[in-house]
Specification:
This protein is α+β, with helices and mostly antiparallel strands. The strands form 3 sheets. It has a 3-stranded antiparallel sheet, covered by helices on one side. It has a 3-stranded antiparallel sheet with strand order 4-5-6. Strands 7-8 form a two-stranded antiparallel ribbon. Helix 2 crosses helix 5, helix 4 packs antiparallel against helix 5 and helix 7 crosses helix 10.
Length: 378
């Protein structure tokens, strides 16, 4: 080869000339051009790090296949199209894929899981109209950044992974970008529970059905959603227990005894059942129990202070007692009363058991009632 400046012969692929020292510029290799009629790959003018793939024209109009992070993926998309044809759902939006996925998936999971997925889906509003094959990790990560809590982040990631997996199975996308979502770190704050003084105040107003409901949660450890779904047929006042549960396999269809030393709890429930035709114990939705019962009563007792009440919905910004605080309070009372951890896990329906605790899955009702009888009225 010859030096680009002095034109003297120098060794092939030399970086510098041996005679004049001039740096030799490497000749850029031209990208292989696709043969005519097999589609085109070009840089995205809106984003220099993206490449756009178009399949061969159909009826005089090129078929847009999507944008890709590099030219190779764009080439592969065209090759896949030419080899297999465009999948039926290839141009579907995220919302369309979600609807197809949910029609199948929602029939296989519990009602509580459906409610969680449905509420989480609302967070995808900003990208739901995007074409599925155009969505990347960065789009999901933006939703995560506005989640506000670790549990919400995990719910978003889980839903995104499931939707992308369905799209992947149907050849809509080539990669599950949701699997690369990163969950930010959150500092776990101590859960607020009811103090003995606050519980005593509730007992002083226990003639109010709303307060009775709060005390019922405190002394049984139920989730508010479980309470709203309690059926009259699940009550066994003769043997002193009821059947409830949702959310996890360990939590469903579990036995919860009424505390023997606090007979008022069972009496409250009996009073809520008006006649034999009544199907659910409380005849109220979870939202009604949350706002018209729980927050309404606590606000009147000055145990919580909402920022505002709009259309019957209590809104808070700072730390405050929540319906789930009753569950934490129950766990705290149970531990203080000396209830064994494996019995407590069985009563409140937690899924994580140690190997030893697994032995107690088939405990009889008398043993559970004996443990529940350790709780004393404050």
């Amino acid at each position: 080869m010859k030096c680009i400046r002095c034109r003297k012969e120098i060794p092939e692929q030399s970086l510098y000339c041996l005679y004049c020292g001039k740096k030799q510029s490497a000749q850029k290799k031209k990208a292989n051009r696709r043969p005519n009629g097999t589609g085109t790959v070009s840089r995205d003018s809106r984003c220099k790090n993206s490449w756009i793939a178009h399949a061969p024209s159909s009826g005089g109009k090129r078929i847009y296949l999507g944008s890709f992070p590099n030219a190779r993926e764009a080439q592969n998309a065209i090759d896949t199209y030419l080899r297999e044809g465009c999948p039926e759902m290839y141009h579907a939006t995220l919302e369309e894929i979600y609807q197809l996925w949910s029609e199948i998936h929602y029939r296989q999971v519990s009602d509580s899981a459906v409610r969680l997925y449905s509420s989480t889906w609302k967070r995808f509003a900003e990208i739901r109209h995007m074409k599925m094959h155009d969505i990347r990790t960065v789009h999901f990560q933006k939703i995560i950044s506005h989640a506000g809590s670790e549990s919400a982040c995990h719910a978003i990631r889980t839903l995104a992974v499931l939707i992308c997996r369905y799209a992947l199975e149907n050849d809509v996308i080539q990669k599950n970008y949701a699997e690369f979502i990163r969950i930010p770190r959150f500092e776990k704050s101590e859960k607020k529970i009811f103090t003995p003084e606050e519980i005593a105040l509730l007992w002083a107003h226990s003639d109010d059905k709303r307060v009775q409901f709060i005390l019922f949660l405190i002394y049984t450890g139920l989730r508010i959603g479980e309470a709203s779904n309690l059926k009259v047929s699940d009550m066994d006042f003769v043997h002193g227990y009821f059947i409830c549960g949702e959310k996890t396999k360990a939590g469903r269809n579990r036995i919860v005894p009424f505390p023997e030393n606090i007979p008022e709890i069972a009496e409250f429930v009996k009073g809520w059942i008006q006649d034999d035709s009544q199907k659910t114990v409380l005849n109220a939705t979870t939202a009604q129990l949350r706002h018209q019962y729980f927050y309404s009563a606590l606000t009147e007792l000055h145990l919580v202070k909402p920022d505002r009440i709009q259309h019957g919905i209590y809104q808070f910004s700072g730390e405050h007692l929540t319906p789930h605080s009753t569950r934490h309070t129950f766990a705290s009372l149970s531990a203080s009363a000396g209830i064994a951890p494996e019995h407590l896990q069985k009563i409140i329906g937690h899924a994580r058991y140690s190997t030893t605790a697994e032995i107690y899955i088939h405990q009889n009702i008398e043993e559970l009632k004996s443990e529940m009888g350790k709780i004393q009225k404050i």
